[in-house]
Design brief:
By secondary structure, this protein is of the alpha/beta class. It has 2 domains: 179 residues, P-loop containing nucleotide triphosphate hydrolases (Rossmann fold), CATH 3.40.50; 112 residues. The protein is built from 14 helices and 10 strands. The strands form 3 sheets. Strands 3-6-9-2-10 form a 5-stranded parallel sheet, with helices on both faces. It has a 3-stranded mixed sheet with strand order 1-5-4. Helix 9 crosses helix 10, helix 10 packs antiparallel against helix 13 and helix 11 runs antiparallel to helix 12. It starts with a strand and ends with a helix.
Length: 297
């Protein structure tokens, strides 16, 4: 079986133009421990994946991403034989590539939504995430060893009954330190306002209104006493702001803020009684007189 490993690690360095807005010095925490093993927890859309990608881009580190899913096969991590022409080649998996890269330089392995992986795939990470920093390839009778202090392993995890996930193996869980994020607007309201202005080109007054409305819905979701169980992710807030600008330009709906909310937030995220309650909150905060609307849109 032929094995070819002529990799261009520089091609793995992500290019990100957007600014990442910190909540709790999380970028400094990631960088403070060489070869750290971190689990980033928080609600969907709070920037967990973006944090890992931005960390790699800012520090010019090759990034290897494993997208957690139930159908993920251990071979996707380790590698598998593949027929090319009339010959059989060994194709390394993402985890193996990350370990090989760490022998040459610092790099980042992102395990996105780790708790969507079934236990047998989680188990493959065990010997890579501890002091051994290795993976065993039985098909090649080979152990690929990386350099632990060069390999940052960052996993992300969503918690809550609304997510379809597997229990995280205790042995895997214990290998990671935890950084907990929240919605940006709840941690740093002005930063999320600035984000909307920078990404969408909206006025401060409109960004302020959208973040205030989103924070009200987020707080209801966090209270545990509401039919709302999901807050508004920042990505949906960005979509909302962009649609407001477009709907206002093309005169779609009497109130472009509410019309855009229906499409970017209400119909996109909610159903049943939660949908009705979110609509009531948005109407209560965004149903402004035409004169006020013209001033902020």
């Amino acid at each position: 079986m032929k094995v070819s490993r002529n990799y261009d690690w520089d091609a793995r360095i992500p290019k990100i133009d957007a600014v990442y807005y910190e909540q709790i010095n999380e970028l400094k925490k990631l960088k403070s421990v060489k070869g750290g093993r971190w689990r980033i927890e928080g609600p969907t859309g709070c920037g967990k994946t973006m944090l890992a990608e931005y960390f790699a881009a800012k520090n010019e580190l090759p990034l290897f991403t494993i997208q957690g899913r139930y159908t993920l096969n251990p071979a996707d991590l380790v590698g598998r034989p593949t027929i090319i022409g009339n010959e059989i080649y060994w194709i390394d998996g993402t985890l193996t590539k990350a370990l090989l890269c760490s022998k040459d330089r610092e790099c980042v392995l992102l395990v996105d939504e780790i708790n969507r992986m079934e236990p047998r795939s989680q188990a493959i990470l065990l010997e890579a995430a501890d002091y051994r920093c290795q993976v065993t390839i039985e098909a090649l009778d080979e152990v690929v060893k990386g350099v632990a202090e060069n390999l940052y392993i960052i996993s992300t995890l969503n918690k809550g009954g609304e997510y379809f996930v597997n229990r995280l193996d205790a042995a895997v869980e214990g290998r990671f330190s935890v950084i907990t994020l929240d919605y940006l607007g709840l941690k740093n309201r002005e930063a999320e306002i600035e984000l909307l202005i920078e990404r969408c080109g909206v006025k401060y007054e409109l960004a302020d209104l959208l973040v205030s409305t989103a924070n009200k819905i987020r707080m209801d979701a966090k209270s545990g006493k509401s039919v709302i169980t999901l807050g508004i992710p920042t990505r949906n807030l960005i979509n909302w702001a962009n649609l407001v600008i477009s709907y206002n330009k093309y005169r779609i709906g009497e109130n472009p803020v509410i019309e855009a909310a229906k499409d970017a937030v209400i119909d996109a995220l909610y159903e049943g009684q939660a949908k009705t309650t979110v609509m009531q909150i948005i109407l209560g905060m965004c149903d402004l007189p035409n004169k006020e609307l013209k001033q902020i849109v």
